[in-house]
């Protein structure tokens, strides 16, 4: 039976990571195109990994404030199912990217307190999916992938007119609680399933998917 909680494993960089994600029942795999990230992959690396992803698992390119030229190069070379915009892209930019590439767009929105919630409503009018992540600390090098969570009570019981995914500091130890508290049906994880920074761990990936699904009451 397919898992009830759809999991996205982000920041894959090796063929064995793709295998581990598939074995864990991933619904999505993510490739990070952001040079400052320890999970950054080249277009050539991502293209080689993408062709090994089993049919039925969505291949997502994570970009941060990418230009059209950068996106053109990625989309031309890598077979993708979705674009994840994880920077300060405006609502208008989300619309532009959707139109230009004809791919579903997931917009990441950082949440630290209740003042951040209206942005979710605004992006829900333009994006195909929302990714609700912890807001990065000021002066952080990365806008995500910092292993930090936010106060999940802020979004408990809330819904949006498009599908959404919870992210930020998720691990096998807190995935079930995250699902129970927020009602999320999709989880995105990166650093919480790593043996060391940027290196995915197959056992943690399996444990994460199992924990997420144990969270259904
Ligand atoms: O993973 C990265 O290196 C990264 C770089 C730039 C933007 C986003 C990044 N990761 C995304 O951040 C969230 C949360 O990650 P974590 O589980 O807290 O490590 C997730 O969506 C990652 O895809």
How would you summarize what this structure contains?
This protein is α/β, with parallel strands linked by helices.
Report on this structure.
It is a single chain. The protein contains seven helices and ten strands. It has a single domain, classed as Alpha-Beta Barrel (TIM Barrel), CATH 3.20.20. The chain is 31% helix and 21% strand. It is an alpha/beta fold and 217 residues long. Strands 7-6-5-4-3-2-1-8 form an eight-stranded parallel beta sheet. Helix 2 links the parallel strand 2 (28-33) and strand 3. It has helices spanning 15-23, 43-50, 68-77, 91-101, 117-124, 175-182, 202-214; strands at 6-10, 28-33, 58-63, 82-85, 105-111, 129-134, 164-166, 186-189, 194-196, 199-200. The longest helix is centred in the last third of the chain and has 13 residues, at 202-214. The structure holds the ligand O=C(O)c1ccccc1N[C@@H]1O[C@H](COP(=O)(O)O)[C@@H](O)[C@H]1O. The ligand O=C(O)c1ccccc1N[C@@H]1O[C@H](COP(=O)(O)O)[C@@H](O)[C@H]1O binds at residues 10-11, 30, 32, 34, 37, 39, 62, 64, 86, 131, 133, 142-147, 167-170, 188-192.
SSE layout:
Elements: E1 6-10, H1 15-23, E2 28-33, H2 43-50, E3 58-63, H3 68-77, E4 82-85, H4 91-101, E5 105-111, H5 117-124, E6 129-134, E7 164-166, H6 175-182, E8 186-189, E9 194-196, E10 199-200, H7 202-214
Helix pairs in contact: 1-7, 6-7
The ligand O=C(O)c1ccccc1N[C@@H]1O[C@H](COP(=O)(O)O)[C@@H](O)[C@H]1O binds at residues 10-11, 30, 32, 34, 37, 39, 62, 64, 86, 131, 133, 142-147, 167-170, 188-192.
Catalytic activity: N-(5-phospho-beta-D-ribosyl)anthranilate = 1-(2-carboxyphenylamino)-1-deoxy-D-ribulose 5-phosphate
Protein name: N-(5'-phosphoribosyl)anthranilate isomerase
GO molecular function: phosphoribosylanthranilate isomerase activity
């Amino acid at each position: 039976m397919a898992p009830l909680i759809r999991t996205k494993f982000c920041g894959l960089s090796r063929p064995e990571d793709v295998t581990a994600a598939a074995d864990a029942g991933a619904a999505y795999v993510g490739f990070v195109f952001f040079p400052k990230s320890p999970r950054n992959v080249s277009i050539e690396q991502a293209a080689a990994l993408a062709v090994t992803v089993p049919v039925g698992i969505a291949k997502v390119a994570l970009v941060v404030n990418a230009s059209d030229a950068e996106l053109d190069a990625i989309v031309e070379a890598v077979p993708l199912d979705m674009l994840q915009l994880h920077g300060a892209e405006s609502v208008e930019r989300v619309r532009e990217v959707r139109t230009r590439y004809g791919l579903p767009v997931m917009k990441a929105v950082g949440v630290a307190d209740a003042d951040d919630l209206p942005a979710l409503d605004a992006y829900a009018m333009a994006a195909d999916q929302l990714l609700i992540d912890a807001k990065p600390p000021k002066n952080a090098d990365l806008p995500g992938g910092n292993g930090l969570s936010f106060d999940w009570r802020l979004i408990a019981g809330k819904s949006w007119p498009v599908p959404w995914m919870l992210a930020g500091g998720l691990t096998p130890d807190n995935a079930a609680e995250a699902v129970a508290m927020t009602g999320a049906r999709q989880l995105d994880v990166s650093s919480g399933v790593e043996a060391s920074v940027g290196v995915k761990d197959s056992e943690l990936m399996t444990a994460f998917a199992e924990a997420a699904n144990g969270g259904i009451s």
